[in-house]
Structure formats: structure tokens, C-alpha cells
Amino acid sequence: MSRPTLTPLAQSLPESVPFVGPEALERRSGHLFRARLGANESSFGPSPRVIEAIAAAVSSVWKYGDPENHDLRHALAAHVAVPVANVMVGEGIDGLLGLVARLYLNPGDVVVTSLGAYPTFNFHVAGFGGRLVTVPYENDRESLAALAEAAQRENARLVYLSNPDNPMGTWWSAAEVEAFAASLPPTTLLLLDEAYGETAPAGTMPPLAIDRPNVMRFRTFSKAYGLAGLRCGYAIADAPAIAAFDKVRNHFGVNRLAQVAALAALADQDYLQATIGRIAAGREAIAAIASDNGLVPIPSATNFVTIDCGRDGAYALSVLQTLAARGVFVRKPMVPTLDRCIRISVGRPEEIAILAEELPGALKAAG
Amino acid sequence: MSRPTLTPLAQSLPESVPFVGPEALERRSGHLFRARLGANESSFGPSPRVIEAIAAAVSSVWKYGDPENHDLRHALAAHVAVPVANVMVGEGIDGLLGLVARLYLNPGDVVVTSLGAYPTFNFHVAGFGGRLVTVPYENDRESLAALAEAAQRENARLVYLSNPDNPMGTWWSAAEVEAFAASLPPTTLLLLDEAYGETAPAGTMPPLAIDRPNVMRFRTFSKAYGLAGLRCGYAIADAPAIAAFDKVRNHFGVNRLAQVAALAALADQDYLQATIGRIAAGREAIAAIASDNGLVPIPSATNFVTIDCGRDGAYALSVLQTLAARGVFVRKPMVPTLDRCIRISVGRPEEIAILAEELPGALKAAG
């Protein structure tokens, strides 16, 4: 029957939900997870001041949020010490990455990323007709050399690097990242995803060189700040690149409570530092549990620990599934050879205790 | 200097914020508005049960929201009595309209709308390279005959109709809208924006003919439900059109508190009915104030009243500006001949009292 038709590009895309949420898994199994350690959230939650700020703002939810995100944008600019013209707020890094794909990708344009890196970025690239060129991880790290080589060879429009990396938790030093950025063609835009930047060792995040027109940084309130449910991230780049977001963004997209919460979270840096300490302790606890069970934890600069289960992807998947059956939600990389690992987010001590309790049995059941 | 380049389409787009928010106006003037009657929000606010539901959920904002919006989607499907496969939740109608433009518009495809209708829709159409073809309003209503004629003549990909209409407040009956839909080419998708549907008289919204592949309905929690700040709207259409959203949507886009709040709002239909009654009373009060001042209120099915100031656009703009200087925020259409009007959202009685107090002086000052 004759009906409205999608664009050829849209027709070519699969209907998908790139991440199956823990809620969907719970609905399928009929059981709630006892330890939610799979989504790299911060179960320490946000600052109590954030909770207060949201509570104080609830009575104003009938008002549209500020489409300019004025107060938050100014606070962020002051926080990272760049002019306001160099900062844009968006609906999480996910939303901003989608806008970047839309702004920069002509059909067929090459985008370079690591095989096994962030699926949502790949979803956006495919969604705007970009052509993904992937390079393998090397020793569980994104390969700066291979990324640069591919970007140069393909004259890539965009290149994506997560530092620290998800899903492996590994990282490069600021100096190494800077050298990488400098080696890229001037027309290749480096998308440097620093979602896990707050939990990384000092010396991991390069200085903000906002006069460099081919680097865009991404940060978020979803991880260390504990606000994954509110969808608020930001981009830092040179002024023309930031201004371009106003060509296409959904202006009321960052909701009123997200703006209020992010502003309060940013103002409580003491709480952030305390959380970072708890995350570091949690990483050590998870690593110790892994070692106690004969597994190899990969050093991590993030709020999760990726653990080498020592055998193939099928085995690691089986470990994940047996953990899930015991009420422990974790995730895992799916691309060989990363797929030999499971990825465990830092949770509260009581959640990590559940992991410690269940892992031996899960490993045994996984065979 | 060599730098990453935007797509030709992106280069052609202006950097803009389509709506200047009241916050921006307040920042410029240095004064807060005493009556916020310009953004068609509901200053009655949401149900107290919504406030409670948000408060109860605040401690879980560290968790990502459900990317499938499962509970809300199911509740909406039950509420409007269609299968779940016919409902999609999104970041407000704005967000959903952007996705539709992306899914359906090839560069140069024609989109038909009324000259002076929703600017954000036009922003999305331009943003995906569509070609807008506009038809004039007729007697302050969108012209169904002219929209249909243009859609047929141009073999339009999309046609937009807001019923009840923003910015005029006027409306067509369900039977007239159904005849309009039936007159469109089967390959033209009608986007029927029913953001103001709850406040319209019975018999304004056609039955949900979800087997009709060329009609998509849009509704929202931003207006009568009083949740503009949370960004939550939904689309109702045939199943293939709904499934297509999963090709491109930002899966975590509807934030956790928005899902919780919308679910609670939907469950309190008594509160909604009470609000609709208060909005109706507010419309009458605003219309009476207009008449008392020698102006002509246009009959409205929405949560605002558009008032014919009886002279040209410059005069109406002057009325708007003098009201703003007196602390009353209203908006106005900008396209002739609609621009002879100002548009006043229903507010709380105390806000309408401020309007009554300030309008005579504003009219005098506007000359």
C-alpha cells in the first residue's frame, strides 16, 4: 500500500535500542538486581545539595527550562576557566555526539574509532550516513598510533577517542593525547570523550587548548557527579565549533531540573572529591575480589574495573549471565579479544560485598 | 586556516535560538516578570501527586532512565486505548518533530505548513534541508483547504497542522480534520500537533485511526499537565511509523524524572480536569479584560487567548513591549496579518489581575 516513505538512509538503518537497560533485563527475568554494577553509574548518588536543589525547584517544573542554559553554561565556563563561547550544554554526551555527527558528516564521510569503543557514537555516525573505519585495541588500550594512521590515511572527518577508555578503563597521559591530537590532519575533528575524566589520575586530561580548531572535548554529570538519570553533558571547543550547535540543537532539550541539578553539583566540589575517593576505594575492592578469584583486573582510571576472565568470550559471557542470575548486573565488551572480559562498575560497599559473595559460585557455574 | 568543515547544509543554517526565553528577557532588562503569561505554560503547575512522585524519585537520579520508557509508554497506550506499538515517547513534541524531519526529509523535499505556525517545526525542517511551502491563515485559522491544495500540488512529504492552533487559539472540528486528512496524498504524512488538545471542546480531536499510515499525532505533558520544564511528549501513529523512531532517537533522551513525573501526571486525571476548568475560567477572564479595554479576543480552544489589538503589527508590538516594561510577559505572532495580535497565556488569577491592572496603561503608552 502506498504510504509515506523514509529517506533512503533511514530505510537502511536498523530499529534498535543500542543498550538494553537493567530495567529491561529485570522485566524479562522477573527479578530485581541486588547489585547494579553494569551501567557505570555512581550509586553513591549526587551531593545532598543537589537533592536539595532539585527539591527546591520541583514546584517550578511547569516552566520551560532556559533554552540558553545560561546559568549552567556560565558556571561551567568559570569552572574550567574558558570563555562562555567555548562551552555548550547538551542532553548528555550522547546528545552532543549526535549533533556533531549531524553537523559534520556528509554521506560516506569517514569516521575513525576503535573496534569495541562507544556503541552510541557508532549509532549516531551510522544514523547520519558516516562510514566507520575501526582500528583494533592494542594491549587493552585504544591505539593512538593506529587511530592517527587511519585518520591520516582516510582523511577522516571525525576521530573518536575516549580517555580514560570505556569499556577497558585504560588511559593515556595528557602528553600522549596532546601528541596524538597534534598528529591529526587539521581538517579532522578529534572528539575527545572525557566522561571518566574526573576519576583519572592527575596528568590524564590535557590542558584545554580552546584555540585549537580540531579538538572537541566532552564531559558529563552522569558519572562521578552521579546524575546519569538527568541527562546533562557539555562540550568544550573553539568558539566557531561551539556556536555551530545553535544551528541544530533542540533548544529546550536540557530539562529544567537537569540544569538546576548540574549547577548544584558543580558547586559542591568537596562532595565530588569525596566521591572520587570512594570510587578509587571501590576500584581496589573490585580488583582484589577479581584477584582472589584467580582473575586479572585491568588497571582502571574510571568508575569501573574491567576484569580479564582468562578464557574466551563465551566463557566471559557465561560468567556475566551466571552473575545476572544471582542478582548482580554487570556488562562486558563484545568484540574479540576484549570480549574475554567483564566490566564491573564501582558500587556502594554493600553492592561490592554481594559481588564478592556471588562471584566464586558464578565462576564455578560458568564452568 | 584549515579546520574541520561543517556539511554544506549545516554551513547554510543560521546560528539561532528560535525562542528567546523569558529568562533571557529578564537578564536583559534586569527585572523579573511579575506575570509570566507568554510561554503557554500552566502556572497552575502539575498535580500534587506529581510533585510527590518526583520527590520520591530524586534519590535515584544517579541511575540512567529506562531507554525504552517502558512504564510510561505502556501507561500512555492504555490511556489512549491503542497498542503499545503505536506510541512513542520523546523529549517533548519538539524532539519528536526533529526526529520526523530527520526520518522523512530528503534535501529539497517539500513540507507544507501555515505562514506563522510553529517556528520550531520550521527550524527542524530547515535543519534537515526540507523546503518549506507556506499557505496563509484565513480568518485567523489555519486553512485546511489551502494546506490540502498545497500538499497535493507539491506532492509534499510532510504537512503540519496544529489543532487547536498556536499562535491563534482557533480550531477545527474532528470531522473537518478527518476530511482534511482523507484529502491528502497517501504519501504525504500529516503531522497533527495536538499539544493543546486537552483544553479543546469535545469533538475537536478525531478518533485515533492508527491503521492510517499517513497521520501522526503529537501530544505533550508541557501544557495542560503543567510539566513544560521536564520535556516529555509522545507520538501516536501506525506501528511502522512508530518503530522507525528507534532507528534514530537518542535513547536515553527522556530523563528519569520526566518519565516518573509524566507517569504520575497521567494517573491523576481528576487534577487534569480541574486544571482544564481553571484554564477555561482564565480564558474567559482574559477575554473580558480584552473587551473591557476595547480589544477583540479571538475565541480559543487552548491555554491562551490571542487578542486582536485592532491596528497594525507595530502597534501590537508596542503593546507587548509596554506590557513587558510593566512586568507582564506575553508573546505575539510576527507574520502579517496575525501580527496585529498579542498572545496571552492563562495564568493564575493573581497574574491575570496584574494583566488587568497594567493593560490600560500599556495601551495608553503604546499610543
From TrEMBL, chains A, B:
Q: Which family does it belong to?
A: Belongs to the class-II pyridoxal-phosphate-dependent aminotransferase family. Histidinol-phosphate aminotransferase subfamily.
Q: Which co-factors does it depend on?
A: pyridoxal 5'-phosphate
Which PANTHER family does this one have?
A: HISTIDINOL-PHOSPHATE AMINOTRANSFERASE, HISTIDINOL-PHOSPHATE AMINOTRANSFERASE 2
This protein is called Pyridoxal phosphate-dependent aminotransferase
Q: Name one Pfam family in it.
A: Aminotran_1_2
Q: Which UniProt keywords apply?
A: Aminotransferase, Pyridoxal phosphate, Transferase
Q: Which NCBIfam families match?
A: PRK08153.1 (NF006014)
The GO terms describing molecular function are: pyridoxal phosphate binding; transaminase activity
Q: Which residues does the UniProt record annotate as the domain Aminotransferase class I/classII large?
A: 37-358
Q: Which InterPro entries match?
A: Aminotrans_II_pyridoxalP_BS (IPR001917), Aminotransferase_I/II_large (IPR004839), HistidinolP_aminotransfase (IPR050106), PyrdxlP-dep_Trfase (IPR015424), PyrdxlP-dep_Trfase_major (IPR015421), PyrdxlP-dep_Trfase_small (IPR015422)
Give the pathway annotation: Amino-acid biosynthesis
Instruction: Give the organism the record lists.
Output: Paradevosia tibetensis
